[in-house]
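Lay summary. Proteins are chains of building blocks that fold into shapes, and those shapes determine what they do. In this project we predict the shape from the chain. Here is one chain we studied, written as its sequence of building blocks.
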Amino acid sequence: MNHIAKQPIRILVLHQDPLLSAGLTAALRSRPDFEVFEGGEDHATPTADVVVTDYRRALHLTEETGSSPRGPLAGAKILALTASAREADICRAIKAGIHGYLLIGGPLSELIDAVQTLVNGGRFMCQSVVERVAHSMSCVPLTRRENQVLRLVVAGDSNKTIARRLGIELGTVKSHMSTIMSKLGASSRVRAVSIATERGLIDDDDAWSEPLPTLQASSARVLAAVY
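And here is the predicted shape, written in a compact code that computers can read:
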């Protein structure tokens, strides 16, 4: 009886951290069902089933094409391995079309599960990322005006300056701040800024965007994909 040999899963490790990249490559090569390549500026880009890469490069590979890369990496699944657990970063990755999201420091078994899930057509988020996304869905979103006020607070503006810049009454600014702190679970103005920064709710690239509703919509999509 003829047996058709199963093709190994081709993995390209393309991480910006050279030490992490080398460690990932060595660890993944211990699997007989994986064929692992380490990429970089001095290496030709091989074809791959899965690309394990850093957050910024994962966005670059997916945002330019809308989903999967073109060229030698056409059809490859993108797995981001990053230190960022901020809700905004996670949801931006989801929106960009990244297939998997892992945090640095997780077990090797989690990485192997992620690779196999992606190759089988699924999406994979580590448990802590899923929990963070689920938490964002339970939060009451800020309104557009509350986002504007919060961004100016983060920029260091006083209530009087915020009122002048937005063309609203000082009492209205104070009312917005009270609501913002309540929604963020913050006991003070300083704590509200800290929470907003930790969660990635302030995006300097778009001073007047409305991130929280977008976060919740993206969160719903990733939970549906994972479960």
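What the prediction tells us: The chain has ten helices and six strands.
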